[in-house]
Amino acid sequence: MEDSGYVIQGGRLVLPASVLEEGSIVVRDGHIEAVLEAGRALPADLPRLDVKGSWVSPGLIEQHIHGAGGMSFEDVSSEDPEAGLATLLGIRDFLAARGVTSFVPTVNCRDRTLEGLALALEASGLPESTVPGLYVEGPFVDPGHKGGIGPETLQAFDPRRLAELLDLARGRLRLMTYAPELSGAPELARLLEAAGVIPCLGHSGASLSGLALPQGKYCLTHLFNAMTPFSHKEAGAGLCMLPFIDRRPFVELNADGVHVNDEALLAAHRALEPGRLVLISDAASPAGLPPGRYALRDKVLDSGPRGVRYADSGVLMGSASLLPQVLAHWLRLTGASVPEALASCTLVPARLLGIDDWRGALLPGLEAALVVWEGDFAGVGQCLLPGSRPPGSA
């Protein structure tokens, strides 16, 4: 039920660089009006929710996600727009119940899927702060580092093909992964930037030697995965070395404990600039469901402690975890401060995606997409979206 406002009081508020103990948040008209220290007078005209020392954070932002709850963005097709809309809204609701209030649908490059998602977004009326756009992996990537990308979707770079994809996306394309060593990659980066699409380097066999990098804001797709590794002998080897020697790119890192081992996660934590690090899940459709066997298009998936894999080949194609589980693993492993870890799931992706004027922090003026957590981020107590009134407020 929509309401003009409410107050959350007594929480451990996770601010961008600190924790405000026993703080309060005043919400009116779907926006944060004030963040108050303990002892400050609270509006008498608003209902209150006492959260009794629970962590309170901005809603998480899933920047790289293929599906969840048995639903997949890869199944969306322009041939069935109603089903596409149902999938988009179904995943939105599944994620919101788990503390994720913004997300970027991520897919392999299939025309019907890309167009279908663009049409579903238009029909949904969801604001950019909830769905900043679409994320496409390919088609201009290295076949030798395709990972879980369907080989039938891959092709050499052609500017006419890129123009077709931009048209199919109807202005909704926000990120595209490409291999920067492929012929025409510098032109591809320029065309993406001109279209307002963030270039993402990945699924690549690139060497750093002589590599042409995007001139503007760009990102690395799931660091360490589907790219050339470190080498202490071969000069320039390893695209994954790039963010350790160049502080410019944003960096996606899948900290589910499966895609990247704990030692590499610790190295990344200790060496990478926190303000550029984006924690992701790369979740596949079985994420959030019990371990078992699931279907995706004409494939069978095995989901469990080893992630989500194609049953016939054993190839890892996605995560069985969602971003709250990724965050919990990162906190346990690294000992990172709560504000720093939360920022990698909230404020940093918001800055990359250009939605930090709306989402990503507990700051006055931003939309009230808020999460009250159970314990030390073990689960979601309540997820509050803009315009909602929390149950149990008095």
Written description of the protein model:
It is globular, with a radius of gyration of 21 Å. With 394 residues, the protein is of the alpha/beta class. It has an eight-stranded parallel beta sheet, with helices on both faces. The chain has helices spanning 81-96, 111-124, 159-168, 185-194, 242-245, 262-271, 323-334, 338-343, 347-353, and strands at residues 5-14, 19-28, 31-36, 48-50, 55-58, 60-65, 67-68, 71-72, 100-108, 134-137, 173-178, 198-201, 219-220, 250-254, 277-280, 292-296, 299-304, 307-310, 316-318, 370-374, 379-384. It has two domains: 5-58 and 360-384, Roll (Urease, subunit C, domain 1), CATH 2.30.40; 60-353, Metal-dependent hydrolases (TIM Barrel, Alpha-Beta Barrel), CATH 3.20.20.140. The protein is built from nine helices and 21 strands. The two termini are 15 Å apart. Helix 1 (81-96) crosses helix 2 (111-124). The mean pLDDT is 94. Strand 9, helix 2 (111-124) and strand 10 form a beta-alpha-beta unit.
